[in-house]
Amino acid sequence: MKYKLYLASDSASRKNLLTEAQIPFEVIGHTADESIVDVNRPLAQVVAEIAQLKMNHIVVPAGTHDGQIVFVLTADTLTLKGGPGAHEVFGKPKDRAHAQYMLRVTRQGSITGTAFCVQKLVWKDDVWHTLDRQTGYAQGFNIIDIPDAFIDFYLDRIDYMNVSGAIKIRGLCEQFIKEIRGSYSAIMGMPMYELRETLYRMGFYE
């Protein structure tokens, strides 16, 4: 690729999705406080606001020369539990008991939505300037039925504290997936179809 892509996320799923799509990237940090966002609103609106909040607080390394262009990617994933009409928003579990509760509610179905924000920056006069900024969103519905007899088996084997809704959908969890509709990659943490289209529009693939 001609341009560098910075990913402001420590999500293992997002890193894997970008790697598998053969999109080179480097991980950077952000200083956003996600707790200030009101989650009692439509799912797409909440995750989009958080993704943009993260973008407003990215920590980008200094450029190397005037005219250098880089792209920065942020994202957020949240889950509505309990099937159609659900209003309980789940992010990452607070502890193991919370994760167990999440998994039981998930049997009724859940909607997971991921929003991303891409910013195109140019280095000039020792400062990054924004050339373009775009967002995208996708979601998927799933029913994941992990019986009580398997909950501890599952939690003992995944990093459940670092995934939305205590669900790491690829790998061990696949044997418990009863149904999936919509964007599979959005459930995993990054809607790759929408991301590729956005990067193309913004000139990343030039």
CATH class (first level) name: Alpha Beta
β-strand percent reads: 25-35%
Given helix and strand content, the structural type is: alpha+beta
The largest pleated sheet is described as: 7 strands, mixed
The number of E-state strands comes to 9
Order of helices and strands: EHEEHEEEHEEHEHH
Task: Provide the gyration radius in Å.
Answer: 18 Å
Give me the number of helical elements: 6
User: In the CATH hierarchy, what is the architecture at level 2?
Assistant: Alpha-Beta Complex
Average pLDDT score: 93
Spatial shape: elongated
CATH topology: Maf protein
What is the number of domains?
Answer: 1
What does this structure look like?
The protein is α+β, with helices and mostly antiparallel strands and 206 residues long. The protein has one domain (4-201): Maf protein (Alpha-Beta Complex). Helix content is 28%, strand content 32%. It contains 6 helices and 9 strands; from the N terminus they run βαββαβββαββαβαα. The chain has helices at residues 12-20, 43-56, 96-106, 148-155, 184-188, 192-201, and strands at residues 4-7, 26-27, 29-30, 58-59, 69-81, 88-90, 110-124, 127-144, 177-182. Helix 1 links the parallel strand 1 (4-7) and strand 2.
Question: Topology, pairings included?
Answer:
Blueprint: E1 4-7, H1 12-20, E2 26-27, E3 29-30, H2 43-56, E4 58-59, E5 69-81, E6 88-90, H3 96-106, E7 110-124, E8 127-144, H4 148-155, E9 177-182, H5 184-188, H6 192-201
Parallel strand pairs: 1-2, 1-5
Antiparallel strand pairs: 3-4, 5-6, 5-7, 7-8, 8-9
Helix pairs in contact: 3-4
